[in-house]
Amino acid sequence: MKQPYNTTIYNTALYLRLSRDDELQGESGSIQTQRMMLRQYAAEHGLTVVDEYIDDGWSGTNFERPSFQRMIDDIEDGKINCVVTKDLSRLGRNYILTGQYTEIYFPSKGVRYIAINDNVDTINGESELAPFLNILNEMHARQTSKKSRLPCTQGLPMARTMEPMHRWAM
């Protein structure tokens, strides 16, 4: 799609993130799905894709992700004026920092932010729902973290957990 006459050209960063890899080697299936979705959205909305920034295997609670930091550098260098993600949770799962990026940093740099599945597009003004979604995204990350720390024997009878592993294979 061509840009309409006399409109802003959006030099766009497609940001993709997944906290855990699939069983696939290389990029995960979800990253491939995100890429197809973001590329299709950009094409349908006349956004010029400058680069893809992919943090596969990185937690959204940490903003020291390599591709995220590279994207921020490109924003600082004036290469990017639009960031597109699948949803707000792909940008981050720390509600305070995610909100600082979407409500303070991006606007201060003249960067449009779009979270496709959450219907967030800063060209339409601030999303009243976004802060609540950010809180829910952080709560999800906390719950997932708690569940992953549970002992693997939870729910199994104690006698069975004491058996030597080679007996299980029989």
Give a brief outline of the structure.
This protein is an alpha/beta fold. It is built from seven helices and five strands.
Beta fraction of the residues?
A: 15-25%
Question: What is the CATH-assigned architecture?
Answer: 3-Layer(aba) Sandwich
Order of helices and strands: EHEHEHHEEHHH
Distance from first to last alpha carbon: 61 Å
* Class by SSE composition: alpha/beta
Would you identify the CATH H-level superfamily? Resolvase, N-terminal catalytic domain
Oligomer: single chain
Fraction of residues in helices?
Answer: 40-55%
Uncertain spans, ≥5 residues at pLDDT below 50?
A: 21-25, 129-134, 144-150, 155-170
Number of DSSP helical runs: 7
Radius of gyration: 20 Å
* Largest sheet, spatial ordering of strands: 2-1-3-4-5
Q: Would you state the CATH class? A: Alpha Beta
Number of domains: 1
Task: Give the overall pLDDT as a whole number.
Answer: 78
**Net shape:** globular
CATH T-level fold name: Rossmann fold
Total beta-strand segments = 5
For the largest beta-sheet, the strand count, sense and barrel status come to: 5 strands, mixed
